Amino acid sequence: DLSAALQALAEVKALAIRSKNDGQKAADRAADYEKKAVLLLKRAEAGEISPEEADRLASECLVSKESSANEAIRLKNDQAKFENNVDKLDNNIQKLKSNIKKFEVELITLRARAKVSEATKKINKQLAGVDSSSTVSMLERMKEKVDQDEALAESYAEIASENTSVDDEIEDALNSGSAEVKASDSLAALKAKMGMSSTDA
Prior knowledge:
Blueprint: H1 2-45, H2 51-128, H3 132-162, H4 166-174, H5 179-194
Helix pairs in contact: 1-2
């Protein structure tokens, strides 16, 4: 899995770094042994130590130098191998991360589809449980009640129109004259109030 791959990557990177550091130390030792061999020969030339002793010690330095140089080469090769493995592991991890991301997106989509499917199933189940005959019967009862209420309202309106009192009929008869007659009566009443005869202009 991803955590194991990341741990392996970290471990291989650590090996590459250690090989690099150890290789550099080995190369430094090789250079140091060569410097010491040169110094020994110079001291022998200066008469500070015997030529035989200088040659012996210088030879030992050169042997150690060769050993350290070989170790440096080996460690450098190890470093290259480890770094190559690091690149491969890193590529695999990136692919793994990409696949995980893809799976996460697919999982979200599948969960959404599952919710929609479940909701649709519930609705269809509810619809399937509705009795068509009982639904039609319910609608017919509602229609019958509406028709009954409308007829009752119309009946009340007719009764209200029939309940006209005698006083209402008298008022209607008195108010049924033409506008001209009403105006003439009003004019006569006004003249009488003013003490004028109806013939005065």
